[in-house]
Amino acid sequence: MIYILTGSIKSGKTTSLSEWVNKQDGNISGFLSPVKDGVRYFHSISTNKKFPFSVIDNNYKGDEVVQIGKYTFYKKAFKIAIEEIEKGIKTNADYVIIDEIGPLELKEKGFYKIVKKCIEVSRSSQKTHFIFVIR
Which residues, including other chains, have CB under 8 Å from residue 83's CB and lie 6 or more apart? Predict the structure, then answer.
């Protein structure tokens, strides 16, 4: 099953989801995307590690970043987050969380391919549920 959490910018989606995750006993994988001091981070749910994915220095360009509107993100950060999602799928986690899906995915970038895979898995898996955060 796929669950969608939606809301406007800075409405508390990530905070609410983080509180929900902390109350669960099951196997949860994926990531949350908190913002601290203006920097967006990927927060691995299974390892509790955080790493920045938004580029602070806008002079940082090239093949190592992807840009959408005024935002620039590290491609390597997406790769790490996608590995976390794939790990959740392979281990049949109870829930796999992607925080968040947006304009980048509409352009078939970012999490586009892994979101498609999650949808396919949800059609065949009764065990793993997916939570997508969408603005």
Answer: none
Q: What is the DSSP letter of 108?
A: T
Contact status, residue 2 vs residue 134, Cβ threshold 8 Å: no
List of long-range contacts for 51-55, beta carbons under 8 Å, 24+ apart: 51/77, 51/80, 52/77, 53/77, 53/78, 53/81
Tell me the average pLDDT across 9-37. Answer: 94
What is d(CA 66, CA 72) in angstroms, rounded to the nearest whole number? 6
Confidence label for 67 from pLDDT (cuts 50, 70 and 90): confident
Tokens coding 60: 């940082």
